[in-house]
Design brief:
Blueprint: E1 7-11, H1 15-27, E2 31-35, H2 38-47, E3 52-56, H3 64-73, E4 82-86, H4 91-99, E5 104-107, H5 112-123, E6 134-137, E7 140-143, E8 148-151, E9 154-156, H6 160-171, E10 176-178, H7 179-187, H8 195-210, E11 218-221, E12 225-228
Helix pairs in contact: 6-7, 6-8
Length: about 230
């Protein structure tokens, strides 16, 4: 499935911005649906499930943050990658957005090439040739084809970004990576993501693995970055 087959749902209350988003995304050969608020977005998702949602933080009625929480709480929509679009640049807002499950975040005013790069990086789920279809470490298994993760056979639910992080770490056991290297390999080069964003996703991955006892495998290497290791 090429990028041009991917359906993007843009949820934005300002008509002029909706039109610009539609234009820019269609030029980048995406299929585009638009919605002006959460209730229209629910309808759009029920009609045709999007491959990615662009969600404006500030909306009348249900805020983008509240709606993001709803999307991530529902089994039907929690796996859809979510980019929060916001005019607010306060760090705590950003962290709140990431903590409820947004996969990425872009601040207005943004350039369309940057937005397209973010979307493509998040959608780039297809694995490079030669990557193992099944990765397994101490009973923790990642199936690269179905993108399912299991611990001793029990399914673990991960968001798209946590899945990519885990796949990356399990493909590179015992190696130490700086935050910058993790960004390049997991988010993609030329995508601006704050390094604190990585820490949020690492925390979420540790939390998901924690109840199965695998959290200690993701090790913080002081002053450098992270390592995935069986050696505690």
């Amino acid at each position: 499935m090429g990028m041009q087959d991917k359906n993007i749902l843009a949820v934005e209350d300002e008509a002029s911005i909706r039109e610009m988003l539609s234009f820019a995304l269609e030029r980048a050969e995406f299929q585009v649906s638009v919605a002006e608020d959460a209730s229209h977005a629910r309808l759009a998702i029920a009609t045709s499930r999007p491959d990615l949602i662009l969600l404006d933080w500030m909306m009348p009625g249900i805020s983008g943050l509240q709606y993001a929480r709803e999307l991530k709480a529902s089994a039907q929509t929690r796996d859809i990658p979510l980019i929060m679009v916001t005019a607010r640049v306060e760090e705590e807002d950003k962290i709140r957005g990431l903590n409820i499950g947004c996969d990425d975040y872009i601040s207005k005013p943004f350039s369309f090439p940057e937005l397209i790069a973010r979307i493509q990086a998040l959608l780039r789920r297809t694995l490079p040739d030669g990557e193992d279809e099944q990765l397994s470490v101490a009973g923790l298994q990642v199936n690269a084809v179905s993108q399912r993760v299991t611990a001793q056979g029990v399914p673990i639910h991960l968001g798209p970004t946590e899945y990519r992080l885990l796949h990356f770490f399990m493909s590179h056991l015992e190696r130490v990576y700086t935050r910058e290297q993790v960004l390049d390999r997991v988010w993609g080069q030329n995508v601006y993501v704050d390094e604190r964003t990585i820490d949020v996703h690492i925390r979420r991955l540790r939390k998901a693995l924690g109840s199965f006892g695998y959290a200690p495998m993701i090790q913080t290497v002081r002053g450098t970055g992270y390592r995935f290791s069986e050696q505690h």
